[in-house]
Specification:
By secondary structure, the protein is mainly beta. The protein is built from 1 helix and 36 strands. It holds the Pfam family NPCBM.
Length: about 425
């Protein structure tokens, strides 16, 4: 297994971090049990372990450290691409951030005891306390989303004007103004300098106008069993608990509730974070399709082939997506699948997947190509990019025109090779 390098760390810092992780491991050992349930671990070198537990983990600006346990034996966590995978979100009170992160309340209570809003902060009840988000970082506060048919993973586009929020009422109506406060029983909305109070039970959701907030580059994706998914700046797992920092808030909980840990560094670059050099789509009839990043073509998550992914690319047949390469030694890795059909839709879809490399100005096939059909298990691919100036992902029609031909490149990534 290749050991990923950790840049920017001097010897003293390296020793300090190893000491921290060693302390975490000792703490875990004293508990007498693993802190995480088993999950699949995928490594940059291509190794895949179906049943693995993480006994200690730390990721921040300096890099990734951790200890993996396989069949009772400890091993280093170097080169981890992901552990586990995200879950579908349960329908509860939740906060959705401007960066796409979501945190679901862990209590199935009435919203009266679960959320608060003031001029500076949005609060969500979780565990024994509150998680406080800077108001400008919050896009949505969902109180009773089911009352208006909202899905936290498929939220509609709602236009907001700077300084004005949109209130979605249980009956389907909307109010526009500035949310001054939300308490355990009342929403106060200011409209044309007049305060209007609305009973909390009449409010389904708030689309907040957000604001300017300094965003830091996320270091890790963190998924929880209730469907929460955070783009975290820091994550520490120790003993039976975890602490994640995201968008100015600190989220803590039981380590056993973690279902996804996906570092966003360590020699891995996701195609969904890069700008392509070219995209072309040839419609089967007349409907053009854009490609999408980190989400499905129809507004939901990346789900297909028995997998759910937080990172990846979706394309509709027939299409070609091209990325320039920098010439450094690297490989292209992904899992390919056809997206699961939408609820109530027919289970159709068959796609021909091919990868081409541009060498000496010409497109050359990098693999033999695979025809994948809806419901078939996702297939891993791993391609050496040596000598290539560009990488092209191509999806084409297979069996039945383009019906259901939503092609997924799950966790599509460029992996540095030492």
């Amino acid at each position: 297994m290749r050991h990923a390098s950790v840049s920017g760390m001097n010897r003293a810092e390296t020793q300090r971090r190893r000491g921290v992780v060693a302390a975490l491991v000792v703490g875990c050992l004293f508990t007498g049990s693993f802190v995480l349930a088993d999950g699949t671990a995928v490594f940059a070198g291509g190794e895949r372990i179906e049943e693995a537990a993480i006994k200690a983990f730390s990721v921040d600006r300096d890099g990734v450290e951790g200890v993996l346990v396989v069949d009772g034996e400890e091993r280093e966590l170097s080169g981890l691409v992901r552990w586990g995978e995200p879950r579908a979100a349960v329908t509860r009170t939740a906060v959705v951030l401007e960066d796409g992160s979501r945190l679901v309340c862990d209590r199935p209570w009435s919203p009266a005891g679960l959320a608060r809003v003031d001029e500076a902060t949005v609060r969500l009840r979780r565990g024994k306390g509150w998680v406080d988000f800077p108001r400008e970082s919050v896009a949505w506060l969902l109180l009773t989303p089911e009352a208006v048919g909202l899905d936290v993973e498929r939220l509609p586009s709602v236009d907001v004007v700077d300084g004005e929020d949109v209130v979605l009422l249980v009956g389907g109506d909307r109010l526009i103004g500035r949310v001054e406060s939300l308490t355990n029983d009342t929403l106060r909305l200011v409209v044309a300098d007049e305060a209007i109070d609305t009973p909390l039970e009449s409010v389904a959701a708030l689309r907040l106008s957000g604001g300017s907030i300094e965003r830091t580059e996320a270091k890790c994706l963190v998924g929880l069993a209730d469907g929460s998914l955070l783009k975290a700046d820091d994550l520490t797992v120790a003993n039976d608990s975890f602490t994640a920092k995201a968008s100015g808030a600190e989220v803590t909980g039981e380590a056993a509730t973690l279902v996804l840990i996906q570092p966003l560094a360590s020699g891995v670059r996701y195609l969904s974070d890069l700008e392509p050099a070219d995209y072309r789509h040839t419609p089967y009839l007349d409907l053009p399709w854009p490609y999408t990043r980190d989400g499905g073509l129809r507004g939901g998550p990346l789900v297909g082939g028995g997998r759910r992914a937080a990172k990846g690319i979706a394309m509709h047949t027939a299409a070609r997506l091209v990325y320039r390469l920098d010439g450094s030694p690297q490989r292209f890795q992904a899992e390919i699948a056809v997206a699961d059909p939408e609820p109530g839709a027919a289970a159709t879809g068959s796609v021909s997947f091919r990868v081409y490399l541009v060498k000496e100005g010409k497109f050359e096939p990098a693999n033999e190509g695979y025809v994948m059909r809806v419901g078939e298990a996702a297939r891993p691919i791993d391609i050496d990019l040596a000598g290539a100036a560009a990488l092209a992902l191509v999806v084409d029609f297979a069996d039945d025109g383009d019906a259901g031909d939503d092609a997924l490149w799950l966790d599509a990534r460029l992996v540095s090779v030492e």
